[in-house]
């Protein structure tokens, strides 16, 4: 079983002293060439702050993001699950994980980066800024990544639980063994509505509980049964989807 996460726009600063980007340490080495191409395009535009901010949709106050990109090949790195911040990752709280939880997460969780494609939770990444809809010279991220990421994920055996946003799912499809997790609330009439405000936090809390349990579910039925025992309401939704039903309060 693997769990697919979206990345976050926000990143934690710092990293292991003396470390730097080394793509050979990433999962899925077949993607190295594609990763190098995006890194090269991003560092190229970062040499011109105005061009970079326009391509990345940044304001002048976000110039620090351009500076991050300018030095991303020599900046210190840390495990991807600890690099990302924001609502989902704050709820997941990777820095507080035990060694056992961290080991399980590193073998189970993938973060789908616009810069690197899918990376393992333990893969060492620098701080950077690149979104799914960012524009790089001569390179369209969706066209660049889709086939390669789709083929990569298709080769990963077992159940795939897809927690990505729809925007990042467009950068590569999960395998035929995947199920998409949607966070919803249910009205008194039984009608379910997708949530936005509690969506990311609910996914983070659910994944932390899954990591804490340390169970590698091979089927959807196993996952649903565990979720019920762990206090989550996880039920079948639309075809190929699971609904995580939460309170809107």
From TrEMBL:
Range of residues in the leader sequence: none
UniProt source species: Rhodoglobus vestalii
Any GO BP annotation: response to hydroperoxide
Pfam families documented for this protein: H2O2_YaaD
InterPro entries: YaaA
Name of the protein in question: Peroxide stress protein YaaA
GO CC annotation: cytosol
Domain of life where this protein originates: Bacteria
């Amino acid at each position: 079983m693997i769990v697919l996460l979206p990345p976050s726009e926000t990143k934690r600063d710092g990293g292991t002293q003396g470390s730097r980007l080394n793509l050979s340490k990433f999962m899925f080495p077949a993607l190295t060439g594609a990763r190098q191409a995006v890194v090269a395009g991003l560092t190229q535009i970062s040499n011109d702050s105005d061009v970079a901010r326009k391509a990345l949709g940044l304001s002048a106050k976000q110039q620090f993001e351009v500076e991050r990109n300018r030095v991303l090949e020599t900046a210190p790195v840390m495990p991807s699950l600890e690099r990302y911040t924001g609502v989902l990752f704050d709820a997941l709280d990777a820095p507080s994980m035990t060694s056992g939880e961290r080991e399980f997460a590193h073998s189970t969780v993938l973060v789908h980066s616009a810069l690197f494609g899918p990376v393992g939770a333990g893969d060492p990444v620098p701080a950077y800024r690149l979104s799914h809809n960012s524009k790089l010279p001569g390179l369209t991220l969706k066209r660049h990544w889709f086939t390669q990421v789709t083929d990569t994920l298709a080769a990963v055996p077992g159940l795939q639980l897809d927690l990505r946003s729809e925007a990042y799912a467009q950068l590569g499809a999960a395998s035929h063994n995947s199920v998409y997790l949607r966070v919803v609330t249910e009205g008194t009439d039984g009608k379910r509505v997708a949530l936005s405000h509690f969506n990311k936090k609910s996914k983070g809390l659910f994944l932390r509980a899954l990591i804490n349990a340390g169970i590698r579910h091979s089927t959807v039925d196993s996952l649903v049964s565990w979720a019920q025992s762990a206090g989550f309401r996880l039920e079948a939704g639309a075809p190929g989807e699971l609904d995580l039903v939460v309170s809107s309060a």
